[in-house]
Amino acid sequence: MPYTKETILPFIERQQQLYEDSSHYAQLQDGVAFLTGQTIHPPVCTDATVAREMGVFVQLLKLPDQWDDNDRLVLQLLADPLVWQQCRDRFLQHVVPMLDTPGSASAIVMRFSYFTSYLQQRGCSTEDIGSILIIYSGDGHNFDLAPLKFTPLRKFLQDLIKSAEWPTVDAYLRTWKQQGWNSLFFRLLSKGHPERETEYLEYILAQPDKGFVNVELSRVLLQLNTGKYLPLIEKAVAHLATLPDYTAQLCGYYLLAQYQPEAYQPQLLKAAYAYLQEYNSSITGQAFRQQQIAMGSASSLPAPDVIAVGQLLRQERQQAILYLDTHLDERKYLHPEAFQLIQQELGNQAVPLLLKAIDNDYEAKHIFPLLTRLDASLYAERLWDFTLHKLKSVRMLVAVILAEHPQALERAGLLLQHKKAEQRLTAVQILCRLDMPEARQLLQQALQQEINDDARDLMLETLGHTFAGEDDTTTAQQLVAFAKKRHKLNRPLEKWLDDTVLPPLYLLNGEALTLDMKRFLLYRMSRIEEMTVDMEARPLLRLIDRTTSGDFSMHLFQLYLSRNGDAKAKYLLALAGLTGDDRMALTLEQAIYQWIGEKRLRMAEHGVGALAMHGSKQALHTVEFLSRKYRVRKANVGAAALAGMQQAAAELGISMHELGDRIVPDFGFKDMLLPFDVKGDTYYLYIDQQFKLAAINNRQRKLKFIPVAITAETKERIKQLGKAIAETVKQQTARLEHFLVVQRKWEPAQWQQCFLHHPVMFVYATRLLWALYDARDQLITGFQCRNDRSLTDLHGRLVTIPAGASIRVLHPLYLSNEAIAQWKQRFAEDGIEAVFPQLDRPVAAIPPQQADTTLVHDFEDIALESTLLNKHMEQKGWKLSEGAEGKYVYAYHKTDDENQLEVIVEMSSIYKEEGFRYKLGTLYFVDKTKMRQRWSRNPDKETDECLMPLGHVPPVFYSEAITDIAVSRQKVEVA
Fold first, then answer.
1. What is the mean pLDDT of residues 169-182?
2. CA dihedral of 125, 128, 130, 133, whole degrees rounded to 10
3. Rounded distance between C-alpha atoms, residue 710 and residue 974, angstroms
4. What pLDDT was estimated at residue 468?
C-alpha cells in the first residue's frame, strides 16, 4: 500500500519555506504523487536543483532488511540518474549509519544484500561499495590502530576486503591513496592483506604538506611497533627533507630524536632553523591545526613552531636569543605557546624579547600575562609607553598591569589630561582599578568634562553614582547642562531620528520637557548595552508623568519597529517602556507574543526587558509568567524575563520571589470581597475553594448562583474576571510547585501578607500543607491554614510561630509514611483537594551507602520513543541539549538556580524497528560554580571537581530529579 499524505507531509513541510521558485515545490509534489500512488511512474527530473530536493524523501527509508513496497517506491524515485547524482550523498548519510543496528544473523545478511544490490544497480563496483561504507561509517578519521571491535558493518567490510582479489585490492589502494589516511581502511587492509599495508603507509607518510597526519601517524606507529616501523618513518622523513617539506621534516626528526637522539639531534636543530627561517607563517601553523581539526584528534606533540623554538633554546641558548631577537624584528609568526616556552626557558632573560614582541604587534593578550610572572623592575617603567599604543586591546591589557605600579595614581592622573581620548580612557581604566579615595576624586573631577563616552561610562560604573544635586529636579537640570556643555545635545542622536517631531513628554509638575531634555534622555539611554536604565537618565526619568506621556512612548515604539528590530535601536524600546502608560504595557505584551510566534526571538528578548522596565504590576506579572513559560523552550526569552525580574526586584531592594508575591493581581478585592450591584442592592463576589467566583448578599449569606438580575455589563465583567482569575491560578500553581521543589523560605510576616490577605493566594494557603522551620533550619511541624486564618498541626492544635522561624511548602520527603497517611485523612475529612501533587508526590531518599558516590547508573535500562520522552521530560522542567562529542549523543539537564546546581542525565539515540528511541545513561549532579564546560563527558567524570557527591545534594532536589525519571518507567520498555 503506498504512503499516505499524512506520513509524508511532516517531511516536506519543513522544506516548503525554502522554495522561492514555486515550480520547484510543484515538482516536489510530483514526487509526493508517485509515493502516494496517484501516479504510476516516477517523475523525470531535468533540473539539478529540483533533483537535489527529492532527497527529502530519503528520510522515509527504513533499514534495508526491512525495505517493503513503500521503501521500494522511494528507491525507484531515487533511481533517476540526475536524482541519484544529486541525492547520493544524502542517501548514504542516512542509510550507512543504520547498518550497524543490532539484528539477527539472517536479518544482517539480508540487510547488506539489499543494500549492495541497490548500489550495484546504480553502477557501483565491489571496491566502490567497500570504500563508500568506510567513508560514510565515519570511523576512520583518527589514528586508532587498536584491533577492530566488530559491529555488523565492520564484520561485513572485513569479509568483503579479505575476499577481494588482487586487482580489487589494487583498486582499494588507488582510492585510499587518493582519499588519504583512514585508520579503518588500514586496519581492514592489515587484517585481510597484511602484505599490502607497507605500500599504503609508504605512500601516506611520503605525502608533502600533510604535517599533522605525518607526525601523528608516525608517533602512533612508533609506539605500536618501533622495530617494524622505524625504518619506514626514517625513509619517509628523509624523502620529505629533500622536497623540502619543512613542517614534516621538523616533526619527523623531532620524533626520531626521541628514539635515536645522537643520530638525529643535529638534524633536528638544522630543521628547526630551516622551519623558522624558510617556512614559518601563521598560514603554515593554521594548516597544521586545520589538519588536526579535520582528523578530530588532539596531538600530544607541540605545534611545529613551538618544537623549533624549544630546540633552539635547549641546544644553543645564546645564539637562539640573538636569532629570536632578529626573528621578532622581522615580524615572522610565532605561536602563542612559543612565547610561553621562551618565558619558561629564559626566565627574566625573556623580558626584552617579550617587550619587543608587543612592540611588533604580536598578540599582547598572550604576552602580558607572561611578563607578570617575571621581575617587575625589569619591565614596569617600559609599560607606560604602551599606554600610547595604537591598539585599544594593548592599552586595555597594560592598564590592568599598571594599576599595580607604585606610581599608578600620579602617572594615571597625568595621563587623564592627555589631549587624545584613547589615552584618557586608558587612564580611567587604571584609576578604576585603584581602590583609593584619591582615585575616585580624580574620576569625579573629570566626569563632567570628559567628552569620550566610553571613558565616562567606565567612570560612572566605578563611582556608582553621578552628580548629586539637592533633589531630582536640580540633578537632572545639571546633568542636561553638563551634557550640553560637552556638545552632546547639539544635533539629533541619529540621522534618521527627527527629534523635533517627537510628541510632548511631560514632567510631574505639568511642564513639557525641552528639546535638550528629550535629547539627553535619548543620548544617555543609547549608551546601554543591556536592557537596563542608564544611571544618568534616572533622575530625569523619575520626574516624568507617565500618565500623560503615552504618545511619546508609542512614537518611540513605532521608531523601533521602523528599524526592523535592529539591536542598536533597542534603547528606543527601553525608553518607550520607561516613559509609557498602561497602553504601552499592553502594546509590548502583544508585540512580544507576536515576535515569539514569528521566531524573532532577539526582538522578543528586548521586548521582555522593556516590559520589565515599564514596571507596572500587570507588566511585571506578565514578565514573571514569561520567565517560567519559556524556561525550557525559547530559553533566551525566559532568561531575558528572569533578568528583567531580577532588575526590577533590585530597584525595589527586595528578592525576586518577594517581587513575584507582590505582583499577583488582587483584581480589586478588599478584605477578600468585591462589591457589585444588583438592582440597587450591594452584593459581593469572593473566590471559593475551587478558585471559582461565588457571591454573598449584604446579609453575608452565601448564594448558590450569581444573581441573574445583574446587568449585561456586570455579567460580562464577571465573566472576564473569572477568566483572568483562572489564568492567574494556572500561573501561581506552577510557581508554588516550583517553590516546593526549590524549598523557598518565607519569613512569617511575608507569608502572612502574601497568603492570608490575598483573595487568590488565601485559597492556596488553605489547600496546601505547610512546614514551619526554626532558625537552625530544623523542621518544627507541619501545619494547615483554616478558613478562619488559624494555623493548626496534625492534631488540631494551634501553631505558634517562634522568632527566627521560616515557612515553606512541606515536601513529603520530610514526612514519615504514617504522617503522610494521617495528613491525607485530615485533608479528606475537610474536603480539601490538592492543587498539585504534594502528599501523593513520589519521593526518593539518598541511599546512605551511595552518599560518597557521584554517578547514578539506575536508569541505563530506560529507552523510550523520542517524542514521548521529550514531552515527559519537558513537563518536568528538563531541557534537552545535543552533546559535542559525536553523533547521537545528548543530555537532559535540569537546574536549581537558587542553589546553583544542575542535574544531568546522559542519553544516546538507538534505532529500533519502530524508529529512533532515546536511551538514558549516567545521571550526576554538578556544582554550576565549578563547571568549566557545558557537559562533563570526559571518561574520568568521577574525578571532576564540579561533580557533587550525592550526600551533598539537597535532598529535595535529589528526590525530584530521581522521581522525574523513575516515573517514566511506567511509559517505558526495557532496552
1. 95
2. -130
3. 60
4. 57
State the average pLDDT over residues 815-841: 94
Beta strand pairing status for 702-703 and 693-696?
antiparallel
801 within 8 A of 748, measured Cβ to Cβ: yes
Per-residue pLDDT averaged across 174-183, rounded?
A: 94
For the cut 90, the answer to whether the pLDDT of residue 425 exceeds it is no
The answer to whether residue 55 scores a pLDDT higher than 70 is yes
Please give the order of strands across the beta sheet that includes 674-678.
674-678, 681-687, 693-696, 702-703
Ramachandran class of 877: left when φ > 0, alpha when ψ lies in -120 to 50, beta otherwise? left
Q: What is the mean pLDDT of residues 825-834?
A: 93
Q: Is residue 218 classed exposed, middle or buried when 0-12, 13-18 and 19+ CB atoms within 10 A define those classes? A: buried
Count Cα atoms within 13 angstroms, Cβ side, for 847: 8
Least confident of 348-362, 660-674, 921-935: 921-935
Distance CA 557, CA 263 (A): 76
CA atoms within 13 A on the CB side of 241: 18
What are the beta bridge partners of residue 943? none
Average pLDDT, the chain: 87
Closest CA to 383 of 366, 399, 361, 365: 399
Count how many Cα atoms sit within 13 Å of the Cα of residue 930 in the half-sphere of its side chain.
12
Q: Is the pLDDT of residue 679 over 60?
A: yes
- CA distance to 189, 301, 541, per residue, from 181 (Å): 12, 19, 67
How far is C-alpha 755 from the geometric centre of its chain's CA atoms?
A: 37
Rounded Cα distance between 499 and 427, Å, is 35
Q: Give the residue among 868, 869, 875, 837 at the shortest CA–CA distance from 632.
A: 875
> Cell 528538563 identifies what position?
878
- The three-class DSSP label of residue 40 is coil
Lowest-confidence region among 64-73, 134-143, 873-882: 873-882
Q: In terms of DSSP H, where are the helices of 243-260? A: 246-259
Q: How far apart are CA 968 and CA 974, in angstroms?
A: 11
Query: CA 721, 722, 727: angle at the middle one, nearest 5?
Result: 95
Distance CA 769, CA 839 (A): 8
| Mean pLDDT in residue range 83-100 | 93
Using CA atoms, how far apart are residues 605 and 627, in angstroms rounded to an integer?
11
Lowest mean pLDDT among 15-24, 556-565, 860-869: 15-24
3-state SS assignment for residue 879: strand
Torsion over CA: 101, 105, 110, 116 (sign): positive
* Mean predicted confidence (pLDDT) in 4-18: 59
3-state DSSP assignment of residue 336: helix
457: cell is: 561610562
How long, in residues, is the chain? 975
Element (H, E) at 10: helix 5-16
C-alpha count within 13 angstroms, C-beta hemisphere, residue 500: 3
- Contact between 803 and 946 under an 8 Å Cβ cutoff? The reply is no
DSSP-assigned letters across all residues of 490-535 = SS-SSTT--GGGSPP-BBTTSPBPPHHHHHHHHHHHTT-SSSS--T
Instruction: Quick: pLDDT tens for 194-241.
Output: 999 999 999 999 988 877 788 889 999 999 999 999 999 999 999 988
Q: How far is CA 397 from CA 47, 135, 368, 650, in A?
A: 57, 47, 7, 32
Q: Interior CA angle at 292 toward 238 and 268, to 5°?
A: 30
- Judge contact between 275 and 305, C-beta under 8 A: yes
Angle at 654 between CA 650 and CA 659, to 5 degrees: 95
Query: For the segment 762-792, what is each residue's pLDDT rounded down to a tens digit?
Result: 999 999 999 999 999 999 999 999 999 999 9
With bands split at pLDDT 50, 70 and 90, how would you rate the model's confidence at 937? very low
- Helices (DSSP H) in 21-165: which residue ranges? 22-35, 48-53, 69-78, 81-95, 105-121, 126-137, 152-162
> Rounded to whole angstroms, how far apart are CA atoms 540 and 522?
12
